Amino acid sequence: MMVGKLPLGEKILLTGATGQVGGELSKTLRLVGDVVAPERVTMNLANSDSIRETIRAIRPRWIVNPAAYTAVDKAESEPQLAYAINADAVKTIGEEAHALGAGVIHFSTDYVFDGSGNEPYTEIDTVGPVSVYGASKLAGEKALAESGAGHMIFRTSWVYGATGKNFLLTILKLARERETLKIVADQHGAPTWSRDLARMTAQVIQDCEAAARDKGLKAVLSDSSGIYHAAGSGETTWFGFAAEAVQLQHESTPGARLATVEAIQTAQYPTSAKRPLNSRLNCSKLMERFGWTMMDWRYSLREVLSEL
Ligand SMILES: NC(=O)C1=CN([C@@H]2O[C@H](COP(=O)(O)OP(=O)(O)OC[C@H]3O[C@@H](n4cnc5c(N)ncnc54)[C@H](OP(=O)(O)O)[C@@H]3O)[C@@H](O)[C@H]2O)C=CC1
Ligand SMILES: Cc1cn([C@H]2C[C@H](O)[C@@H](COP(=O)(O)OP(=O)(O)O[C@H]3O[C@@H](C)C(=O)[C@@H](O)[C@H]3O)O2)c(=O)[nH]c1=O
């Protein structure tokens, strides 16, 4: 893999820097170029004028967009807001990037699939979201692809880290408060470390910049545009993830009282939004194009727990 920084004076516009992935990106991308991360009051993704004005003022070479409406259950009762942020805003970002010749890096989700079958999904497999969140993210993918902007869409899954709102931190909190945790064991997928995703993104931009020295950014983007699956290596269930996390906590803090973790079926844990039973993502394309293998979730879980 080649390494290249942005040309002097060129900028990366980063959205969602207060989020899980955005927080990691704001640290990692600084090693690649000047990062401008407008606050929500300046660039509100629910307001297309504010998106256009901000992009036109900054004139970035790259727009990295981890910002999203991520409240999966709440989206069922707030579809308009979910679509505004996850689809309409992405369309606007794509249009503005196209006008500038900027590259867009966008993040999407395993929830674009219906979860049928037992094999890891590839980028060309049929989508069929079963939730408003998943459908709104799919609409964002399509809008970006149609905008004409050079883009890479990283579909990831089950993101977690030492900070932010995520399943791991919820489970560790509940494990300290309760006797028993009942966790679904029939939804299969892979936890992804937010920092690994950020490092991969930085590496992809560097790779593109290195190639752009010879070919120009437009040609590089046109060669690389598309969807890439980028989930942690290995696979488990939400139950497997929770059980491993609680077990590791036990080992590192012997004597601490922690809940026992019980496996249940999805039907025993009713939620407003349906989740896919199969969330496995095949990440070979990312490896083939950019030489990046995402970290095994068991390894990254240990890294994250050591930070807590
Ligand atoms: N979390 C996960 O498990 C997964 C996430 N993804 C995708 O990865 C990406 C990153 O997710 P993650 O970091 O976990 O998400 P978070 O929920 O942690 O962060 C979302 C970010 O979006 C910002 N945001 C929300 N609404 C607006 C708005 N109207 N205007 C401006 N900013 C806004 C939030 O700002 P504020 O702090 O002000 O609310 C926050 O910074 C998303 O695209 C998500 O769909 C994909 C698969 C799994
Ligand atoms: C807290 C808890 C959850 N669960 C179940 C509910 C659900 O099926 C599963 C995951 O729970 P959560 O609601 O925390 O996760 P969820 O919000 O569905 O996570 C998703 O977020 C979006 C943004 C994505 O893009 C997805 O990749 C995925 O990470 O675990 C239990 O079975 N027991 C519990 O005690």
UniProtKB/TrEMBL annotation:
<dbReference type="InterPro" id="IPR036291">
    <property type="entry name" value="NAD(P)-bd_dom_sf"/>
</dbReference>
<comment type="similarity">
    <text>Belongs to the dTDP-4-dehydrorhamnose reductase family.</text>
</comment>
<protein>
    <recommendedName>
        <fullName>dTDP-4-dehydrorhamnose reductase</fullName>
        <ecNumber>1.1.1.133</ecNumber>
    </recommendedName>
</protein>
<dbReference type="InterPro" id="IPR005913">
    <property type="entry name" value="dTDP_dehydrorham_reduct"/>
</dbReference>
<comment type="function">
    <text>Catalyzes the reduction of dTDP-6-deoxy-L-lyxo-4-hexulose to yield dTDP-L-rhamnose.</text>
</comment>
<dbReference type="Pfam" id="PF04321">
    <property type="entry name" value="RmlD_sub_bind"/>
</dbReference>
<dbReference type="GO" id="GO:0005829">
    <property type="term" value="C:cytosol"/>
</dbReference>
<dbReference type="GO" id="GO:0019305">
    <property type="term" value="P:dTDP-rhamnose biosynthetic process"/>
</dbReference>
<dbReference type="GO" id="GO:0008831">
    <property type="term" value="F:dTDP-4-dehydrorhamnose reductase activity"/>
</dbReference>
<feature type="domain" description="RmlD-like substrate binding">
    <location>
        <begin position="11"/>
        <end position="307"/>
    </location>
</feature>
<keyword id="KW-0560">Oxidoreductase</keyword>
<comment type="pathway">
    <text>Carbohydrate biosynthesis; dTDP-L-rhamnose biosynthesis.</text>
</comment>
<dbReference type="InterPro" id="IPR029903">
    <property type="entry name" value="RmlD-like-bd"/>
</dbReference>
<keyword id="KW-0521">NADP</keyword>
